[in-house]
Amino acid sequence: MWAYVLRRILATFPVLAVVAFVVFSILHIAPGDPAAIIAGDQATPQQIEAIRASLGLDRPFHEQFLIYVGNVLQGDFGTSIFSGVPVTRLFWQRVEPTIALTITTTIVTLLLAIPLGVLAAWKAGSWIDRAVMSFAVLGFSFPVFVVGYMLIFVFSIQLGWLPIQGYRPLADGFWPFLRHLILPSLALGLSFMALIARITRASVLEVLSQDHIRTVRAKGVPTRGLLFDHALPNAAVPILTIVGVGVAILLGGVVVTESVFAIPGLGRLVVDAILHRDYPVIQGVLLIFSAVYVLVNLVVDLLYVVFDPRIRY
Amino acid sequence: MLMRTSRWVGAGALAALLAGLGATPIAVASEPTVIRSVPIGNLRVLDPIWTTAYITRNHGYKVWDVLFAMDANGDIQPQMVDTYTVSDDGLTYTFTLREGLLWHDGEPVRAADCVASIRRWAARDGMGQSLMSFTESLEAVDDKTFTLQLTEPIGFVLDALGKIDSNVPFMMPERLALTPPTEQITEVIGSGPFRFLADEWVPGSRVVYEKFEDYVPRDEPASLAAGGKVVHIDRIESVYLPDAGVAMSAIAAGEIDLHESPPTDLLRLVEGNPNVSVIPNDPQGFQLFMVINHLHPPFDDVRVRQALLWGINQEDFMATIVGDPTRYELCPAVFGCGGTNESDAGSEPLMTVDVERARSLLEEAGALGARVVMLDPADNSTLHPAALMGAQALRRMGFEVQADAMDWSTLTQRRASRAAPGEGGWNIFITNSTATGIANPLSHNFIRNCEQAWYGWPCEPRIVELSTEWALETDQDRRAELTHELQRLHLENVSYIPLGQYKPAIIFRREITDVIPGPAIFYWNLRKEG
Question: Residue A297: its pLDDT value, please?
Answer without folding.
Answer: 82
